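Quarterly update from the structural biology core.
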Amino acid sequence: MLLIDTSFPSCRNQAKFHRDCDWTKYFPDALEDIPAKSPPPFGEIVHLTAYVDADHACDHVTHHSVTGIVLPLNNTLVAWISKRQCTVETSTFGSKMVAARIAVDLIVEMCYKLRCLGLPVEHRSDLIGDNLSVVVNTTLPSSKIKKKYLACSIMRVREAVAAGFVWFGHICSELNIADIATKPLGPHAFR
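Predicted structure, tokenized:
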């Protein structure tokens, strides 16, 4: 059973966003890919929020991490991912960074589809994660990239943040609903 809830998500009140940076000198050409031949938007504006998490090295045999992404449209769940990552990451930062890049790609894909269907999509989509160092490394230009092998994932998220169509915010782990896609939860936490 899928519950339809068109109310506006409350994540903006719960998450802490870093948006006081000027990205234009780093990404002067960063733009969102908007379909040219989409129908005129009709209806009320919809908002996408992607909750992202990763369970580092949870597979005890291969030490692969699991990516978990939950994507509601307003407050209605429309997409989710719970998938083992293709690479073995040596740190929690690495596994959560890979998950954030996948979440940005999912946001771009979903916004494009919704616009092609004629829905008015809000220009800003929220990406919510519970790892502060991943949020800071992708939202503040002053942070240094210390892990070269993760540079492509970091730059993909940074480019989306620079274009302004993704805002990456930090939320405490207890409020991150993507946990449901990465690890087994007890009945209380599951509800």
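Helices lie at 11-14, 92-116, 132-139, 151-163, 187-190.
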